[in-house]
């Protein structure tokens, strides 16, 4: 079996629901491809801002760098629109891409 590390970032709004269903699909098909999944969940977007005051905490970035893949949920929403551009949930996506 091959082990794959996947970072799960549920995000905001419908993101947690969608990523939850995606995880169920991954868990269902993994054995058929002889894969073992090592799933780690970290915050991103508005959820991360609410928890840590930043759209993507350093621990989330570090986990992404140490993963084979990132399962990213929806990010942002009306709740965070009044925030300064520098800390808006979407800013976390830009850092994640780098």
UniProtKB/TrEMBL annotation:
Source taxonomy: unclassified sequences, metagenomes, ecological metagenomes
Keywords of the record: Amino-acid biosynthesis, Branched-chain amino acid biosynthesis, Leucine biosynthesis, Magnesium, Metal-binding, NAD, Oxidoreductase
Residues of the signal peptide: none
An MF annotation (GO) of this entry: 3-isopropylmalate dehydrogenase activity
Name of the protein in its database record: Isopropylmalate dehydrogenase-like domain-containing protein
Short name of one Pfam family: Iso_dh
Residues covered by the Isopropylmalate dehydrogenase-like domain: 5-97
Gene Ontology BP, a term: L-leucine biosynthetic process
Statement: the UniProt record of this protein carries the keyword Secreted: no
GO cellular component: cytosol
Keyword Metal-binding applies: yes
